[in-house]
Design brief:
three-stranded antiparallel beta sheet; globular; 166 residues; alpha+beta; five-stranded mixed beta sheet; single chain; 4 helices
């Protein structure tokens, strides 16, 4: 089990976090049209998974806005914002913010994602949500960058994620 912090307090994170060079674990998540999607739905594209606790928190909202802006600079790349938020809430957030370069995906039907991808917060007040992380996959769904953010309130390393796509 790994640990991150939230405002300096330790939080346990369960599961096997994807490491560089690994094949991405399988996933099924729900999009804003309430359809379940898998990595196969994005076949042939590079994928940036911006994994967050909730778009309703300041840092998560900021990382979603930032990746939306950066997405326009990334050829053959889709940005997937993954959280436990209901698809309705994520759609409302992106609509209100004018974000159309990211695709939001929910774990609400597929909580197995949390442990399969090693982002299951299993202690503290955010227990049941995803830890903050960024995983970048190449066109063949191999991990080319992974960062489990050590402090939940901190932003991910955008530059490192972008450099992995260069």
């Amino acid at each position: 089990m790994r640990q991150v912090t939230r405002a300096g307090d330790p939080v346990d994170v369960a599961g096997d976090f994807p490491e560089m060079g690994q094949a991405a674990p399988a996933l099924t998540l729900t999009n804003t049209d309430m359809a379940d999607v898998t990595l196969a739905d994005f076949a042939g594209q590079r994928k940036v998974l911006n994994i967050i606790p909730s778009v309703d928190t300041p840092t998560c909202a900021l990382s979603t806005r930032t990746f939306n802006k950066l997405a326009s600079q990334m050829a053959n790349t889709v940005v997937l914002v993954v959280s436990a938020d209901l698809p309705f809430a994520a759609k409302r957030f992106c609509g209100a913010e004018g974000l159309d370069n990211v695709e939001t995906l929910s774990t609400f039907r597929h909580p197995e994602f949390h442990r399969t991808w090693g982002v299951a917060l299993c202690s503290g007040v955010m227990k049941g949500l995803c830890a903050r992380a960024v995983v970048v996959l190449d066109e063949r769904d191999r991990v080319i960058h992974s960062q489990l953010v050590g402090e939940i309130k901190h932003e991910p390393d955008y530059q490192a994620a972008l450099e992995s796509l260069a």
